[in-house]
Structures are given as C-alpha cells and as structure tokens.
C-alpha cells in the first residue's frame, strides 16, 4: 500500500492514464472497424483512383499546353492512321467508277 502522498498521487495519475489509454483504444478500434468495412474500402479506393486520374489528366493537359506543335503532329498522325482505310476505300471506289483512259 502507498504510504506517502507522492506515491498516492503517482498511482492516481497512473490510473487516470490507464483509463485514458483504454478510452483511446476503444475509439481507435471503432475507427479501424469502420475503415475496414467493405463499403469503406471501396469508397476509399474510388476516391484514390479519382484523385490519381485527376492528377494524370491535369499533368497531360499541362504537357499539351507546353508542347502544342508536338501535340498537333501526334493528333494529325493519329487522324491519318484512323482514316487510312476509309480514304483507301474512297480512292478504290473512284477508280472503279472511272475506267482508265489510254492517251493516244
């Protein structure tokens, strides 16, 4: 048993610290349970993915603004690649409709 006032005061402080630690543990455990629920995990993953996509889009936009000539060249090349077959069909159909003429 504690004999001096200092020992009693010290034990009382330890008891209060223990009670506070238990309360903090209860709060932390409840927060962890909530965070580990599947709906919370999905929501957190969705938010992180949205942030990453937003940052990537912003970075891409800044890159486009910083290099407009390269952007235009890449866009024109992509358009030509995408339109290659329709243009070839158009040329082929016009050749079929106009027979070759022999010059004399």
Automatic annotation (TrEMBL):
Domain of life where this protein originates: Bacteria
Residue span of region Disordered: 36-60
Listed name of the protein: DUF3618 domain-containing protein
